[in-house]
Amino acid sequence: MDKVVILARVSTDSQEYQRQINELTDYCGKVGWEVTEVFANKVSGAKKIEEREEILSLVEYVKEHRIKRVVCLEISRVGRNTLEALKIIQFLTENGVSLFVKNYNIETLDANGKPNPITSLICTILLEIASMERLTIKERMESGRKQYIDRCRKEGIKMGRPSTYRKSVETYKEQYPKEISLIRKGLSLKNISVITGTSINTIRKIRDIVRQ
Questions:
Q1: What's the rounded Cα separation, in Å, for the pair 68 and 194?
Q2: How many Cβ atoms sit within 10 Å of the Cβ of residue 164?
Q3: CB of 99 within 8 A of CB of 107?
Q4: Terminal Cα-to-Cα distance of the chain (whole angstroms)
Q5: By its UniProt entry, which PROSITE patterns does this protein fall under (predicted)?
Q6: Rounded Cα distance, 41 and 84, in Å
Q7: Once rounded to an integer, what is the mean pLDDT over residues 69-98?
Q8: What are residue 9's DSSP bridge partners?
Q9: CATH code 3.40.50.1390 for 2-127
């Protein structure tokens, strides 16, 4: 049985992050791959690839355990933009690690460990498409927000949440099951924030609720 590791992107939606892991784990089981570790891609463009702790840890792990394949759900999960994602793919390639992208069933290295030029082209195109989609969504959101602000100003409507707005305990429990589970396991607030993408302040509120 081939051993692989999963690379999933940390999201502000903990359920989406867990969905990535569940779907990839199920797929690997069906094709006969054994998942030995899961790495969380924090998608931080402020650092160089060589300074990205999660990527360095991933490469160190696959070298130590002689694992040649990293599995991700979609190419957009590798990086938040085309340049960042391609740098990560190149970094993996230089270290003899192949990236398998599940939704298109493509792999960056062939059976001989050589770069697959067709896959490289497909990945670049898919990353550019994903980038354009994100830009379009951002423009629509900004346009919608501007229209909302203009209407509120014109009609004298107070913007934002009511000053008395508070999430109920039940709402926290429904929205943050993963965070609650990790808190009960004794993980630090910082580690939980990295894994789930939830802010430390929010996790602190959840911890207080759990302790009640």
A1: 25
A2: 5
A3: yes
A4: 46
A5: RECOMBINASES_3
A6: 12
A7: 85
A8: 41
A9: yes
- Burial code (b: 16+ CB inside 10 Å, e: under 16) for 117-143 equals eebbebbeebbeebbeeeeeeeeeeee
Alpha helix stretches (DSSP H) within the chain:
14-31, 53-64, 82-94, 117-155, 169-175, 177-184, 189-196, 200-211
| Three-class DSSP category at 52 | coil
pLDDT tens digit sequence for 45-73:
445 555 567 777 888 898 889 888 999 99
Q: What does the pLDDT read at residue 53?
A: 74
Gap between the Cα atoms of 45 and 78, Å rounded? 12
Q: How far apart are alpha carbons 54 and 40 in whole angstroms?
A: 7
Q: Contact, 27 vs 57, CB < 8 A? A: no
Domain ranges (residues) in the chain: 2-127, 169-211
Contact 44, 14 (CB under 8 A): no
For 54, how many CA atoms within 13 A lie in the half-sphere containing its CB? 23
> What pLDDT is recorded for position 122?
87
Please enumerate in sequence order all residues whose Cβ is within 8 A of that of 115, keeping only pairs 6 or more positions apart, or say none. 93, 108, 109
Tell me, what's the pLDDT at 46? Answer: 46
- Of residues 11, 7, 18, 20, the one with CA closest to residue 89: 7
The helix/strand/coil state of 145 is helix
What is the band of 40 on the pLDDT scale with cuts at 50, 70, 90?
A: confident
